[in-house]
Structure to design on (358 residues):
């Protein structure tokens, strides 16, 4: 049986989906699966438009690989289909193949009819996002510039351009873009979150704290309140609170971040170690050395090459009188710092070993 014979198509609408699919909860997935069984099957006589629509349906269901194949069939039937290349680009991007997605978006943009850019601004917006994912931040900004010139009311495009500017070190330019994004859409948690990150980098801790507060409030109102960014927002806000001297407030935020990570994680994510490490530092500062050690244990379990975790665990062990355990951790930290050519921290840890050996 050919791939075409295995697929189904709903012909009610022949329009390419332009929105990112919303995350589905268990009830919605069950509902989608019920709908899925009712999709009719296209055949070898199906038109390009029918394959495009079916590609859209597969995309909305998160079946990106099959969606790409459907769009490929549409392109075979209609090689100059802007809609097919656009849908292909979205599916390839969300399937983790950014380089191939870039080619698809390039082809779609070439096919934009003269004088019709205003209808297709999102092509430059999405190609900009792909370029950003590929590390080409300047290219991303150039595409976002075009998208904004065509449609100056897209808050998300300003926010994305801000991220690209921030990645190039232009924090002030990034904040200016986030300001515009928030004016257009005051409910954009993403814009508040990213502006908080940029403000913190520039030393505006109070401004960053206010933006994290707003971002977290907006995220918690959304249907997907356990998204990874929610955990990062709590962890980052905890860091800002710690910098402002609010250690107990920081500890509460780290607790929340870790709780969200544990609820949403399907596998170990090295980024999760950041919240544990930060909570370890805070616990130690508040006098909870055993709690700090437990957090450093977790960090080391996630990343056995984290020299700072070994060093700080050694300091906590030393405070509890565990001289032997402290020296063992310092020695491991020193070895890793030396291998990383971080001679300043290597010398500092060796100094601690020397002090404990006297």
């Amino acid at each position: 049986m050919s791939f075409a014979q295995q697929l189904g198509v709903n012909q009610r609408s022949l329009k390419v989906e332009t929105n990112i699919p919303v995350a589905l909860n268990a009830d919605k997935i069950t509902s989608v699966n019920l709908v899925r069984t009712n999709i009719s099957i296209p055949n070898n006589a199906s038109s390009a438009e029918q394959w495009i629509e079916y590609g859209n349906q597969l995309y909305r269901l998160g079946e990106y690989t099959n969606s790409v194949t459907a769009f490929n069939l549409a392109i075979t039937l209609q090689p100059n289909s802007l809609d097919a290349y656009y849908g292909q680009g979205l599916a390839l991007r969300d399937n983790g193949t950014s380089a191939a997605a870039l080619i698809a978006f390039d082809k779609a943009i070439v096919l934009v009819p003269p004088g019709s850019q205003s209808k297709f601004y999102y092509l430059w917006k999405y190609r900009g996002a792909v370029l950003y994912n590929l590390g080409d931040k300047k290219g991303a900004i150039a595409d976002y510039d075009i998208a904004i010139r065509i449609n100056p009311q897209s808050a998300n495009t300003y926010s994305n351009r801000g991220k690209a500017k921030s990645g190039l070190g232009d924090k002030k330019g990034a904040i200016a873009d986030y300001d515009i994004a928030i004016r257009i859409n005051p409910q954009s948690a993403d814009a508040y979150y990213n502006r908080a990150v940029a403000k913190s980098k520039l030393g505006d801790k109070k401004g960053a704290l206010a933006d994290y507060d707003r971002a977290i409030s907006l995220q918690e109102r959304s249907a997907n309140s356990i998204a990874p960014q929610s955990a990062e927002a709590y962890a980052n806000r905890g860091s800002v609170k710690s910098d402002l001297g609010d250690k107990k407030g920081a500890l509460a935020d780290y607790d929340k971040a870790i709780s969200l990570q544990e609820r949403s994680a399907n596998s170990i994510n090295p980024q999760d170690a950041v919240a544990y490490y930060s909570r370890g530092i805070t616990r130690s500062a508040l006098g909870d050395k055993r709690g700090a050690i437990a957090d450093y244990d977790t960090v080391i379990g996630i990343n056995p090459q984290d020299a700072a975790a070994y060093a700080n665990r050694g300091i906590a062990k030393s405070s509890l009188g565990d001289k032997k355990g402290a020296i063992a951790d310092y020695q491991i930290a020193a070895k890793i710092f030396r291998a990383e050519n971080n001679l300043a921290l290597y010398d500092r840890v060796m100094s601690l070993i020397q002090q404990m050996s006297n």
